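Appendix B.2, paired examples.
Example (i):
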Amino acid sequence: MSRAVTGAAAVLVVAALLLPDRVEHLRPVAFARIPVEAIAGTALLLVLGPRARRVVAVLAGVALGLVTLLNVLDMGFRSVLVRPFDPVLDWILLDDAEAFLGDSIGSAGATAVVVGAGVLVVLLLVAMALSVVRLGHVVVRHSAVAAPATLLAGTVWVACAALGVQVSGAAVAARGAADVVSGRVQQVRAGIADREAFAEESAVDAFRATPGDRLLTGLRGKDVLFVFIESYGRSAVQDPEMAPGVGAVLADGTRRLGAAGFSSRSAFLTSPTYGGGSWLAHATFASGLRIDNQQRYRDLTSSDRLTLTSAFRKAGAWRTVGIMPGVTRAWPEGRFYGLDHVYDSRNLGYEGPKFSWTPVPDQFSLAAFERLEHGRPGRGPLMAEIILTSSHNPWAPVPTMLGWDRLGDGSVYESVKEAGEDPKEVWKDPARVRTEYRRSIEYSLTSLVSYVEKYGDDDTVVVFLGDHQPVPTVTRDRLGRDVPVTIVARDPAVLDRVAGWGWQEGLKPGPDAPVWPMDAFRDRFLTAYGPAGGPR
């Protein structure tokens, strides 16, 4: 029994030392290597006294447990957000993950998962510490064998490192845990340097001193709607598995809006994020700065940077509102974005069911905007930022289009939700995930096209775009970070001002459509619609 426990401790420690940080590297060959940390740790324990050895063993075990936890988090983040976990900035995202679980498997299931994860973390740290302590006792008790074995292992490791020996592409001389620690130190240093660099970048603002009466003069009297469609990425319009369906919706939308007198131009923007972190994309689009981490977002939203939306407020010729169905509590950032009023999920008048993560179906959000703001008699020009969330992961169940006069308070959606797919079942099959993702994008696009067709007029200008690509389960790591962006207007003078952009006609950008960084949009938009804007 004692030997079995010791063997289990050795397996646990070695496995932790060799654990990769990517799911795709989680193969048997990853564990057929020699960890240098085990060699160095054994040598250290052999030379320490009993008391120091116990202290070092406990600390080393806890540290190894933390490194293991970081590797597991890296696997999750790389699988969803296509980047490693940031131990300084990313803890806030774990709260979002809990909310997502609650919407996918229910609050009780999410609570059970969170509690279970907490228990596993504690057990991992305790088990790792006890394992290292036990192995320390064993190597000291058998020092006559352990010492020469450690020397031999060290010699083999050095030789393998010098010769570059590999097994199936993996280096035999491994130093994974050391690399994790070194990488985290570099990550913190890079974060500090990035904050300094961002301060310099954000200090430059070509429009900060522009008087309000010289902002957006080319859009005076227009209702300007900036509409974000969640997870609407290049994959939706180019992936062979999804593009035919989405393309048909966009082609039909182009035809329908054309019949109503509207024209459109489309291109791509490169999002700063992937798979999630919508607020980073929103901030990038609005601020003209690349906001690709939480620290930049905090620094930006605590500044006085002129955003696209606050420019409309500064101009003094628009009422500025936000339709934010994904917001479920106080949202102080509304003040930074210059919004006179924010309608969140609590005051859109929706009494229907949630569709997984989505608190309010897109069609209802647009109908609420019409009821609360756009359709009010005697109102002045509006600038609205509208977030459509029905295409948010997990993409099941997907709402269906209803007659605009049938929406009421949203209770009608009870039967719609019951007829939809169960997200727990959908996520068992990647092909079904992609299908439901496609259907959700088609629903969001159809809702927006139908709204513009029904309620748009000569003074309507719509800029709609995606915030980021969906998770790799959908994209299969293809087609990068680009998202479609489209401008729709009935007044020809609006599109004449962006004729020099080279954007393509219609709602669907083709594979060779122009691609801009998302942070380039603010300055180009303010320039095009300023006093010096127009055809070029």
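Example (ii):
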Amino acid sequence: MPLNNRILPEDLTMEYTADQLPFEDTSQLPPLDGVIGQKRAVEAIAFGLNMKGCEYNIFVTGVEGTGKTTILKRILKEHAAGFETPPDLCMVNNFEDSYSPIVMALPPGTALRFRREMKTFIQVLKVKIPIFLGSDTFQEKQRMIQQEHAKVQKKLFETVETLASSLSLGIAETEEGYQIVPLESGKPVAREVYDTLSPEKLKEIEENTDKVTSALNEAVQGVGKSGEQMKAAMKKMMSDALEGLVAKHIDPVRSSFRECRQIQTYLETVKDDIIENMAMFSTGKDAEPENGPRFKEMAHAILKTYEVNVLVDRKREKGAPVVFESHPTFKNLFGSIEKKPVMGAFAADFTMVQAGSVLRANGGYLVLQIEPLLTSPYIWETLKTTLRNSSLRIEDGPESSAQGMPSLKPEPVHIDLKVILVGGYAPFRLLQSADSGFNKIFKVRADFDHEAWCTDETLKLYTRFIAGACDANNLRHFTRDGVWAVIEFARRLVADRRKLSLRFGRILGMIKEADYWAGQEQADRITREHVQRAVAQHRFRYNLYEDKMLEKFDDQSVLMDVSGKEIGQVNALAVYDMGDIAFGRPTRITAESYMGTPGIINVEREASLSGETHDKGMMIVSGYLGRMFAKGYPLSVSISITFEQSYDGIDGDSASSTELYAVLSSLSGIPIRQDIAVTGSVNQKGEIQAIGGVNEKIEGFFDVCTKKGREDSQGVMIPAANANNLVLRQDVMQAIKEKQFHIYKISRIEEGIELLTGIPAGVADEALHYPSDTVFGKVQARLEAYHLLSMSHGG
């Protein structure tokens, strides 16, 4: 047994020194005020935040739980505090085109005051204008204008009547209009008399009637013209009179916003429109009963046009805005135009326009999770267009219930915004490969690492993080050995003794659970035992499936030998990932070799249970056999390899070395130890390559050995490259210390086959022949025999 391959207990343990943890408990430490191990990401974010231009938006990637959002909030808060607060935004009516309301920018924190002052101004006019219109002075001026019109009307008709009288004609007013009749002694001529008149007299009456009719038409036209002049005079009189009234009450609003030119222009338009529609400020009490409600409705609609719709209010903000949009629907991002049902259709006005998070973050920073955005191409395309054009137009979204109905078209708003997308690696790889425009507007990438080297400085920061977590969450503080237990847990998360996990979400969860168990024991500090109990209890809550699988080794439902030797049979190790936990499960790999069609039969592939990576591993096994044994003649052997009692599908190449050991055993006829399980991938040159889940695989075989009966010779063979990844459970570590369980590190197939068989692998001479008493020599002898048989059979 090659003892130099065995990993010693002292190589698996790390102890702290007093200099590394110079405190009694974490209450003596200042809370962490910085970031651990994320220099690359922090500098990338700082670069993106300080770069000008709409294309320097940022996408933040990293493993979940690395504190991306927390760190981002802190950086953005500090960065945004150094900038001026952007203006408030409000929307007002466009009196020239009500379908295109106007967006106005106001000094920060003043939009609500502007809305309030405008509302007060209109409410005052609603009271003042009716009073003014009903005043004696105003009524007297109206009567004077009306009397002047009446005089003109009377004079015009008197002229016509004088002409008619001179021509013995009279003018009678009927429901149909005016009628001209002949007179005799001042009285209308009777019909029987009229019928007896001579033709000459009738012609004279007709000619005179035409003269009077012509004069009457001119008089009616004159009366109409006089009426228009009266209306114009009335309107001018009212306008001149109201000018001072409206100005008196609008001037305080002007004064409040004297430096805002856009508001000054708007207020001038408001003043003109109020004077134009002054009648609508009446209560409508003098209207006809059937028209009163309609009048009031019209008056309400008119008065609503003077309201102010506040889109963004920054009264409570300091510095540039930072908005985290947790639910980025189209409406929540870009705003919406609400609708109300009116007579079977939908209607909208500018007061029903609502801002989204893009407007709220305008002038600052908008943080979005990438995954929800990708559920709607319409949202994603709109976001890109908005950023590319630096302009937002609030419009109906795809989910609007009034699609196809006429809607508002508010003027576009200039956008000066930095967007930070946060998410995992997969969606960003998808966008970069599928969307050519992505990298043009998201030019800055900030990658958050999930691990950091365990230096003295990192340890110091880690202990301060633990102290800060205790203070922030009102938890008990940790003793020195409790802190070290957290450090060990952090090493376990990254499966590397030299590094610490930066997935602080998981770390914080474990800290809280350790505090719970300390509370159960009424302890005033959290110790190593509390941390270990928290870890064990967390696993217990999630490992029912693991326990059920282990039970199958008890009743022989799953066949597994953990002692003795077998030809062509090796114990491989697989990992089952259940989300919150992962665990190892040993499985038996068998290989059979025989005369037949040359090649390796992958039983899993033939049964459609093999993934692409596993198929690749099988081809590498074939390549290795060809490299080692087929340089003088072709291989004339069929080899069947399978994972026994596996029905769910196989993928990955971490068992390729195990499969090769089974093949070498089958070909050589040399049995392999069953008390050693094997993991590791192999390349065509026979080098053993690192694999994932090494701790879970080792612990999985250890648990099966415990179930089936422990022997001091049992152990696991792993790639040498995985030696630093060993952070094992305490019970496994204890067994290794007591030499009841062993771990071997292997760099090449030759080392592994010697350990599994106890026989040298063999080194070929110049003629490419291996010694007959070696594993490779016996494999070569079997292959030569198969080749000769195949040649003989072919002859």
